[in-house]
Structure formats: structure tokens, C-alpha cells
Amino acid sequence: MEAIDHWVGGRRVPGTSGRVAPVFDPARGVQTGEVALASADEVADVVKVARDAAREWAVSPLSRRTSMLFRLRELIDSHRDELAASVTREHGKVVSDASGEVARGLDCVEFACGIPHLLKGAHSAEVSTGIDVHTVLHPVGVVAGITPFNFPVMVPLWMAANALACGNAFILKPSERDPSASMLMAELVNEAGFPDGVFNVVHGDAEAVNALISSPDVDAISFVGSTPIARHVYETGTQHGKRVQALGGAKNHMVVLPDADLDNAADAAVSAAYGSAGERCMAISVVVAVGSAADPLIDAITSKIDEVVIGPGDQPDSMMGPLVTGTHRDRVRSYVEGAAAEGARVVVDGSASPIECDGFFLGCSLLDGVEPGMKAYDDEIFGPVLSVVRVQTLDDAIALVNANQYGNGVALFTRDGGAARRFEREIEVGMVGINVPIPVPVAWHSFGGWKDPLFGDTAIYSPEGIRFYTRQKVVTTRWPDPTPSSLDLGFPTNR
Known about the structure:
Elements: E1 2-4, E2 6-8, E3 11-13, E4 20-25, E5 30-36, H1 40-58, H2 62-78, H3 80-91, H4 95-112, H5 115-118, E6 123-128, E7 131-139, E8 142-146, H6 154-165, E9 169-173, H7 180-191, E10 199-201, H8 206-214, E11 220-224, H9 227-239, E12 243-247, E13 252-256, H10 262-274, E14 284-290, H11 294-305, H12 326-337, E15 345-348, E16 365-368, H13 375-378, E17 385-391, H14 394-403, E18 406-407, E19 409-413, H15 417-426, E20 431-434, E21 450-451, E22 454-455, H16 462-468, E23 470-478
Parallel strand pairs: 1-5, 8-9, 8-11, 9-10, 11-12, 13-14, 13-19, 14-17, 16-17, 19-20
Antiparallel strand pairs: 2-3, 4-5, 6-7, 7-23, 12-22, 15-16, 18-21
């Protein structure tokens, strides 16, 4: 059984707390390893290492940081199969899905490679006689990234790429459910030439999280996870004087108008609802069928569910793998089992395991007649359960989505440009797709929802990430006397 240690100061460091957590292969339901859970004292030691490393890294030349980021990009690219296999082994998602996750994380590293341009300040000459004003962007210091189980490669790279590029030291606290990918990334960061202590990994549970968000030597916290924990991290972190961005849960809607290509919409709904077994914060969990679209759309979705091949993520024909733990599988199953009692119609019942094994599998479930107030609608299920809400008009659909507390992502399927334009303007959601079911922004736009999915003033990665991981300094200067100079016939250098 594999023992998964911390990564501190450029090397693996065994845990000393005496506490561990099991790590499972969810496709087979067997324990494959155990991960060390850090104590508050261990977290404090990691923070000290990061603080010491941050001082030198903050003043390192941009050209040096850039070269390391380019090297890291190449290393991640060359190890993408290994990273994807690690994700599949501990999370359960199919290899193609895991490879896509690595690719989207790689996009964020590529964005960070442009850091010299991204850190350019502004300059205003002669704001008054002989007076100039310019801005300088400084790193914030030590940044802690607390990341979820569902994207153990992509989400850490959302944070770490920009944080490191801006000159910060980074401490990653990944999910204890699938920790191995973070250790592989730490090795790649080390191989890319980043100084020891600039990138660290500390495993743990609530004790480690609370130690990070309360530490006086951690300057900023990036968090992705459930809404209750996001709220706790944001409130506690800000109470301790930190800069905090905390992304929470979601309940993403897909609105389908009668004029839409219903076969295409059904493909999109099935792909977005059941991909990664629904364990995505941008998964579609509610289809809002408008008017006459409902019955033919449900029929189309039902027929396409039959095409979904469920099995271990490392099998080439598998399209959907298991859920991450047996406990989570049972929780998701309870929503399907209780749907009829709430007044919904169970069109497709996937509450039983579709294959004979000890893995944490569920089938795809489809519920019709779901309404606000039902648990299947109100809660973030985070599993392969798709609910259909019927409304009569586009007005009703917009009102339904806007009334929901989770303004993370939304999609509209239609051929009507006017309806799409109105939807885009009136919908109170941070990320909108028009005939696109999962509107995750590309690496040069930022990711973030409205309302409960986002606590803090900045979204994550890309331009907003640069803003979050830097502090602006404004300098006003006047030089009444010329500065003496001397001859230097050498070619200018930035190294």
C-alpha cells in the first residue's frame, strides 16, 4: 500500500501527526494507499518554508520566471498521460476526461508564460510640471490553494501558474481523496527549476485547512469546493486579514427553446450531465424545457442515455466511470430514491449499479416534473442525476434561473438570435453558453460565477488571477536635478 507524503522545500517529507486517510481506487472499491494528514504544527512549518522562499522569488527576474514556466509547460505536456492516469486511478473519471482536464490546466500555464507582459504597469508623464506617476505590481507573498477532488490537476494549475508567475510562493492543499496527482505536479515543478520552497504540497483535512486560513504568514487564499466550506474559508480568512477568493457549488441550468435542434440539445444535455459522473461544478444538472420542447426532448435524452457505456475509467470503451467514494455514491442514490415521494417522475432510474463489481458505480438517472422546493432541485447533487423542469415561456425560464442561489453557469439552446441576445443580457449568471452546454472560459478569460458560487471580488485564473495574486503600488515622482551619467558601450541585457 502506497504511503503518500507531503512535499516541502523541494522534497518529499513524511507526515509526523500520526494521522492518515485512506485512498481508494473507486472503480474497484479497494484501498490503494494512505495519505498523511498534517497537523497545525506541520502546516506552520510548511508556511515558514514558503515564507522564506517567497522573499527571494519575489525579486527574481521576470525572464527567469518565464523560462521556468515554459519548461514547466513542456514537462506537463510530456507527462500528460501519467497525470491523467493518476487522476483516473484515484478519482475514477475516464482517461479521455482526465486527459482533457490536464489539457485545460496546461492552457493556464501557457497563459502564465506571458507574465512579463501581464505585469506591465501604467505610466503617466507630466501629470503636473515635472511630475510623473507610474504603477508597479508586487506579489502578495505566500498563497495557499485549497482544491477539490473533482479536478486534482486542472484546479491547482488554475491557481499555481499565475501565483508563481507573479512571484508568490504557493502551498497546495489538495483533496485527500485523490492526492497523488499533486505530488507528480510537485516533482515537475521541481524539475522545471523552480527554487525549493516556492511550490509546496501539504495534505490534510479540516485541521490543515483551518491552520492555513488562520496563519498570520499566509497572505492569500484561493479555494474551490462546496458553498458551505467556501463561505467558511472566505469569512475566516478575511477575518484574519487575508485576501480570499472562494468558489463554491453550482446548480447549472440548460434552457431549451422549442426552436432548438432538439437532437443536438439532447446530446449536449447527456454529455454535460453525465460526463465525469456529474462530478463537475459546471455539469448541467437541470434542463429547463420551454413549452412544446419538453416531451420530445425528454424522449431524445432517454434514448441517448442508453448509449452511455459505464465502466472503469481505464477501460477504453468506458464513457462514464464511478463516483469518488461509496459514501458519495449512496448520497447521490438517495436523491433518486426519494424523487417520486417529492412529486417527480423517475424517467430513468440509475440508482442501482450498472455493473457487477465492488466499485462505486451508479447509472444515469433522469427526473421529470421537478420543481423548486424539491431536494432534487434545491441541492447540489454532484452526481449523474439530471432533472427536467417544465416552463411555458422564455420569461419563465429566465425568472427560474435568476431565482436560484447558484449563479455559476447556464446554457441556452436556440436558433433565435434575438432570444439569445436577450438571455445573455438578462440572465444573472457568471458564465453563459449559447448552444454550448459547459461554458468554461478559455485560459485568457476568467472563471467565476455570481451569487453563492463566488465569495470575494475576483474570479479565478487569467486576468483576474493576475489581479488577485498581485498588489498595486502607485509611485509619484519628481526629479528636479539631472542624474549624472557615464559611458557604457555594452549591449543592454535583462539578465
